[in-house]
């Protein structure tokens, strides 16, 4: 069953109905001034919420810039980058409210700011598992990035086979007269992990909890194969790396992830 999200317009509508029912005399049910007040209130909520989400967009831009610099630096020096692809998404107002209801968060901006930490999301894909940890380590070492939580679903995959490294970081957003901090969720995974997760996501979307056993078995098998592929690619890469360092005569190659 779909979760009910609180809709400010529907709530205002319900309040108007409630007021009119309470009124003893139908003629005094709804005053034009009431409607004006509520419209004004709704517009204010919309403006505040749009500004609230904008901070997270800026948070995404901060982290994306850091990642792009790392990527370009690596491509320039090593002719290779541990970062294959970067995607970002800002949670929609509906998804924010749905999650807030799900986790029992108050529907106030301070509560949403504190409790819903994946409003800004960045997903990084890379070729090798070692790249995943290297990227996490490079980001964590930056002085204005604070890692507040780590979920290592690579070391400890979820029961369904999901693997990925998740970081919740806090980054500053510099405004003209102040600095605000926002949470950004960063998911880092290999191409194989990402491929599996996107197929699993589509199947979950289609079947929910009722995934047919034959598909569940296929998915379990695919998770095992994806893990094995990552391990094999890692071993092949370990073979190539020392040769690259010697071939280029560049000692910096040894420091790459
Ligand atoms: P969306 O639209 O992708 O953002 P918490 O935030 O700690 O209260 P949560 O949200 O379960 O709990 O955190 P977790 O486990 O770190 O998962 C956050 C995100 O990871 C999810 O976001 C998914 O993007 C991804 N994810 C986690 N588990 C799975 C999984 O089993 N399969 C797939 N395909 N993705 C997964 P959202 O909020 O679900 O949605």
Account of the protein in words:
Strand 4 and strand 5 form a beta hairpin. The protein has a domain at 49-193: 2-Layer Sandwich (Beta Polymerase, domain 2). It has a five-stranded mixed β-sheet with strand order 1-2-5-4-3. The longest helix is centred in the first third of the chain and has 47 residues, at 32-78. The two termini are 45 Å apart. Helices cover 56% and strands 16% of the residues. By secondary structure, the chain is α+β, with helices and mostly antiparallel strands. Helix 1 packs antiparallel against helix 2. The chain has seven helices and five strands, in the order H-H-E-H-H-E-H-E-E-E-H-H. The protein is flat, with a radius of gyration of 24 Å. The model is unreliable at 247-254 (pLDDT under 50). The structure holds ligand 0O2. Ligand 0O2 binds at residues 118, 121, 151, 158, 160, 162, 166, 197, 200-201.
Secondary-structure blueprint of this entry?
Blueprint: H1 8-22, H2 32-78, E1 85-90, H3 93-103, H4 109-115, E2 120-126, H5 129-140, E3 146-152, E4 165-174, E5 179-190, H6 191-207, H7 213-248
Parallel strand pairs: 2-5
Antiparallel strand pairs: 1-2, 3-4, 4-5
Bound molecules: ligand 0O2.
């Amino acid at each position: 069953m779909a979760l009910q999200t609180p809709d400010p317009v529907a709530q205002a509508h319900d309040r108007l109905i409630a007021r009119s029912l309470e009124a003893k005399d139908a003629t005094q049910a709804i005053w034009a001034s009431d409607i004006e007040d509520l419209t004004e209130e709704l517009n204010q909520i919309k403006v505040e919420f749009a500004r609230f989400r904008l901070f997270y967009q800026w948070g995404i831009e901060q982290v994306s810039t850091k990642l792009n610099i790392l990527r370009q630096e690596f491509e320039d020096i090593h002719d290779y980058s541990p970062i294959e692809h970067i995607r970002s998404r800002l949670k929609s107002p509906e998804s924010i409210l749905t999650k807030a209801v799900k986790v029992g968060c108050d529907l106030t901006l301070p509560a949403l700011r504190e409790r819903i930490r994946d409003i800004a999301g960045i997903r990084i894909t890379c070729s090798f598992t070692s790249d995943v940890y290297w990227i996490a380590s490079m980001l964590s070492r930056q002085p204005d990035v604070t890692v507040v939580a780590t979920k290592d679903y690579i070391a400890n995959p979820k029961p369904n086979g999901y693997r990925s490294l998740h970081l919740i970081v806090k980054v500053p957003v510099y405004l003209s007269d102040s600095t605000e901090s926002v949470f950004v969720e960063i998911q880092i995974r290999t191409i194989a992990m990402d491929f599996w997760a996107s197929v699993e996501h589509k199947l979950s979307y289609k079947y929910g909890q009722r995934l047919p056993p034959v598909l569940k078995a296929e998915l379990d098998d695919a998770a095992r194969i994806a893990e094995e592929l990552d391990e094999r690619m890692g071993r092949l890469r370990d073979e190539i790396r020392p040769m690259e360092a010697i071939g280029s005569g560049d000692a910096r190659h040894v420091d790459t992830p």
